[in-house]
Specification:
The complex is a heterodimer of chains A (688) and B (182). Among the domains of chain A are: 1-182, no CATH class; 544-648, Tick-borne Encephalitis virus Glycoprotein, domain 1 (Sandwich), CATH 2.60.98. In chain A, 64% of the residues lie in helices and 11% in strands. Chain A contains 21 helices and ten strands. Chain A has helices at residues 2-29, 35-64, 71-76, 83-88, 94-115, 117-126, 135-163, 195-205, 207-219, 224-255, 266-291, 295-318, 333-354, 370-402, 410-430, 441-464, 470-501, 505-515, 517-542, 648-665, 670-682; strands at residues 544-550, 555-558, 561-573, 576-587, 590-595, 598-602, 607-611, 613-615, 620-629, 637-645. Chain B folds into two domains: 2-115, Cytochrome C biogenesis protein (Helicase, Ruva Protein, domain 3), CATH 1.10.8; 120-155. Chain B has six helices and no strands. In chain B, helix 2 packs across helix 3 (81-95). With 182 residues, chain B is mainly alpha-helical. Classes of the chains: A alpha+beta (688), B mainly alpha (182). At the A-B interface, helix 6, helix 7, helix 11, helix 14 and helix 15 of A face helix 1, helix 5 and helix 6 of B.
């Protein structure tokens, strides 16, 4: 019953996607008419979301009511799994996660149609056929349905998967009485409810900028408003992706027990690749906005980002690469690969066909200009992308060509990523302080004197304070350099607002965010990146680790911490056994509470997972993993203690990045829009 | 209270858990297979031979070796039984005075080059080391050419950012309608 209902929803969504594709394509590409099909495309986008929501709801009901006649529920459900983990087991295996993906994709399509509803309304209100409208605006009216059409094509693929190769609503007969429950790793920490959805919102969100890019290529025109909109969608998806990646690091830290957040696992890399190209786009888009250059390059970045999200999903789902994320392997690998190939070839052909039309007249006039800094930034980010891609794929290449098995792991990536990362950080301090077009000598001296002095002082200071390692000293110096430039930017901006608009300090700050959120939100993001860079550098350099076997009452001391074993215990929960040890933790001789690292033993799958206990503070974390317990009297335990300095700032930095992105895309009131419209009507030249 | 009750049940399910854990061990993953291994391996509390320096070097070498049954975890990080045994081997070899290179060679002999998390820079693997550098050189060359070309043309033509063509009547009406609706 539920199966049929769910499958019907998927089919309905598939039909809606087909309608959106056809109608959107017609409205976007035909020379005359198109009003009817434009509004049809919009309705189809709404309907697809409605249908997919139905499908999602059906699956959630099936999961929560343990309806094991539904194939997916029979595979990932179990009566003993706690309700929370049952609800989120939607994304614990292949079909469910594609369903979730499809739902988000439908949501993005509907949301995009919704944000453009006024355009449709205005179209009706003007009472004129589309063709009567001239210039850029008519182009805008045709772009919207075309974007919906391209999103429709992507929807066709994903909904098609759900209707075929990855159907979550298959029927099981006879109905089993119980199931195995989700993969233990995925039901071991509440963050599992947050990290995957964030990542999915980020991955799927890249579809909208991609659709913008394809629509622009098809129509052979890129206009200013188009770019601003595409960029906003990209910022939103990018922010989700950032949160997803950092959330994943946090989950890994809290669950996997090795005391780190990032292991250059192939699928971690796969999420990092589109992040890098999206970041590159967010910067190079500004060059286009200000100088009209790099149009084709920007389109290429948007398309590459989308392709990399598909590629990442392919890596996760196909099982070609051994990875911690390979729990959702399936047979859809070839289908995915085919879709990636089709999208890549079609996009390349489009760029080849239309690229020339978009060639821009702009020139980079001087290496000492902001556009040069952005171009260099793009070089670094794209080079970084290439490097990570090469390292991730290299074992596959070697195995395919020579049959040898090799590994490319963290030591390699750390080595190649450090210089690139440092160069990027340095550039973050240079770019904002450079003017567009060209900087004069005087201007350079004025802009960089203070940041350079502060940076050098910070580096020397760190050295004087006994920081004996090259990498952290450099990171600290660069960080101080960048933070000084950013502070200077804020100082100048606020001073200007106070002078011109006679605003209070906070009012001026609000003005900066509401009027130039893209720029100042971006600076906030940069602050977050700096905080993360410092956290990585510090925790990496001064991480300390000790392992000891303790009897009750015995202590292990590590750095300024002491850990005393109180007792070893065990208990049983419906879905697992838990062995744990209670430790009393002390810092500088003062008690800081009890820590209870555990080993969870999942009955259904027979896996044990060590769950570390983490005592966080702003200066350092005490991280305890239970390695083993004594068999006989159950009174002694082997524990690994790690002191991770400053690692909390990794998560804090991530949140700062999120806040910055939010500032950049926040709809700061319609009044601004209205004011901009009025300005445009009064004086078209002012819009430049 | 809870722990006392727990310890009483400990014995009854411990053997079952242990048996399954051993069966499940090769399944691998980031799971801590063999986490219960301490149950078999009597640990020596406060082993005097384990100096901090040896521990440090063991961890350093362990970080470059792959845990054979894990995914992308090093021997130093993993708590799987085989990883811990490999760590013991590293420690023993260090105490015997062997060098890091000798220890690495020993493990490559046993497992093949796959055991190294950082591939040796030789043969085909040179590509993975030289590739990024070459890519940056090529990219840098292209970027530099573009910037220099821009400079040389600078004096001939100076292109201002394009201002939008002035608005047509229909467009004005469209903006007005949009504003009214908002």
């Amino acid at each position: 019953m539920l199966s049929t209902l769910g499958y019907a929803s998927v089919i309905a969504a598939l039909l809606a996607a087909a309608v959106a594709t056809a109608a959107g394509g017609w409205a976007g590409l035909s020379r005359s008419g198109g009003e009817v099909s434009a509004s049809l495309a919009r309705r189809a986008a709404y309907f697809a979301f409605f249908a997919m929501s139905g499908g999602m709801l059906v699956m959630e009901i099936a999961l929560l009511t343990h309806d094991f006649s539904v194939e997916y529920v029979a595979r990932v459900g179990s009566r003993e799994t706690p309700t929370y983990y049952t609800a989120i087991s939607l994304w614990s295996s292949l079909e469910g996660s594609i369903l979730f993906w499809g739902w988000i994709l439908a949501g993005y399509g509907a949301l995009f149609a919704f944000t453009r509803r006024r355009e449709f309304g205005a179209l009706r209100a003007s009472g004129e056929p589309l063709t009567a409208l001239g210039g850029g605006l008519a182009h805008g009216l045709r772009t919207t349905p075309l974007v919906l059409g391209v999103i429709g094509v992507v929807q066709l693929f994903f909904f098609g998967l759900l209707a075929g190769a990855a159907n979550p609503f298959g029927i099981v007969d006879p109905v089993p009485a119980n199931g195995p429950g989700p993969n233990p790793l995925l039901q071991n920490h509440p963050l599992m409810g947050l990290h995957p959805p964030m990542l999915y919102f980020g991955f799927v969100g890249m579809t909208v900028p991609f659709a913008f890019a394809i629509a622009a290529l098809l129509r052979g025109n890129v206009e200013a408003r188009w770019l601003r909109d595409a960029r906003r969608w990209m910022v939103a998806a990018w922010a989700f992706l950032t949160m997803g990646i950092i959330g994943g690091g946090w989950w890994s830290y809290e669950v996997l027990g090795w005391g780190g957040a990032w292991a250059w696992d192939p699928v971690e890399n796969a999420s990092f690749l589109p992040w890098l190209t999206a970041t590159a786009f967010l910067h190079s888009a500004m060059v286009q906005e200000r100088r009209g250059m790099l149009k084709t390059w920007n389109l290429t970045l948007m398309i590459a980002t989308f392709l990399l999200t598909l590629f990442g999903t392919f890596l996760t789902r196909s099982g070609v690469i051994d990875s911690v994320h390979a729990f959702t392997e399936g047979v859809i690998g070839p289908v995915f690969l085919a879709f990636i190939a089709v999208v890549a070839i079609a996009s390349l052909a489009l760029i080849g066909w239309r690229g020339n039309r978009l060639r821009a007249p702009g020139q980079v006039e001087s290496p000492a200009s902001r556009e040069s800094a952005f171009i260099l930034n793009n070089l670094l980010l794209v080079g970084f992308t290439f490097t990570v891609l090469l390292g991730t794929m290299w074992p596959l290449v070697v195995e395919a060509l020579r049959g040898d098995r090799i590994s490319v792991g963290p030591p390699y990536f750390d080595q190649v990523a450090s210089p690139i990362g440092l160069a990027l950080i340095f550039l973050m301090g240079v770019g904002p302080a450079l003017p567009w077009r060209r900087a004069g000598r005087k201007q350079l001296e004025r802009s960089f004197a203070w940041p350079a002095i502060v940076g050098a002082a910070a580096g020397l200071g760190a050295f004087a304070l006994g920081v004996g390692y090259f990498l952290p000293i450099l990171t600290i110096a660069f960080a101080a350099f960048v933070l000084t430039t950013i502070a200077e930017e804020f100082r100048k901006g606020i001073a200007a607002r106070r002078r011109i608009a006679e605003r209070s300090f906070l009012g001026a700050l609000r003005d900066l965010f509401s009027r130039t959120g893209q720029r100042y939100g971006g600076y906030v993001v940069h602050v977050g990146v700096i905080v993360i860079a410092l956290a990585i550098s510090v925790s990496w350099t001064w991480k300390t680790e000790r392992e000891m076997t303790l009897r009750p009452g015995e202590r292990l001391d590590i750095k300024d911490y002491e850990v005393e074993l109180v007792e070893v215990w065990a208990h049983e929960e419906p879905h697992r056994f838990v062995i744990g040890a209670t430790f009393a933790a002390y810092r500088d001789g003062r008690g800081i509470g009890e820590e209870r690292p555990r080993i969870n033993f999942y009955k259904a799958t027979g896996q044990n997972i060590a769950t570390p206990a983490v005592k966080s503070s702003l200066t350092s974390d005490l991280y305890l993993t239970l390695m083993a317990v004594d068999p006989e009297g159950g009174d002694h335990a082997t524990v690994r203690a790690i002191v991770n300095p400053g690692i909390v700032w990794l998560w804090i930095g991530g949140m700062i990045m999120g806040v910055g992105a939010l500032i950049a895309i926040w709809p700061w009131g319609r009044s601004r829009l209205r004011a901009a419209g009025a300005e445009l009507l009064a004086d078209p030249a002012a819009a430049a | 209270m809870r722990s006392e009750r727990g310890l009483r049940t400990f014995g009854t399910w411990r053997s079952a858990a242990l048996a399954t854990a051993l069966l499940a061990a090769p399944a691998g993953g980031q799971t801590v297979d063999g986490a219960l291994d301490g149950i078999e391996r009597p640990a020596a509390p406060g082993d005097p031979v384990r100096t901090a320096e040896i521990d440090q070097r063991t961890a350093e070498i362990g970080a470059t070796l792959r845990c054979p049954i894990c995914r992308q975890q090093s021997v130093a990080e993993s708590s799987a039984r085989i990883a811990r045994e490999m760590q013991d081997v590293i420690r023993t070899m260090l105490m015997e005075g062997r060098t890091a290179e000798e220890i690495e060679a020993y493990f490559v002999e046993a497992y093949g080059p796959w055991i190294l998390l950082k591939p040796r820079a030789e043969g085909m693997n040179l590509i993975v080391y030289a590739g990024p550098g070459l890519a940056f050189l090529l990219g840098g060359f292209l970027v530099a050419r573009r910037i220099r070309r821009g400079r040389s043309r600078d004096d001939e033509e100076r292109v201002e950012p394009t201002a939008p063509d002035h608005l047509r009547t229909a467009d004005r009406r469209w903006i007005e309608a949009a504003i009214k609706e908002s």
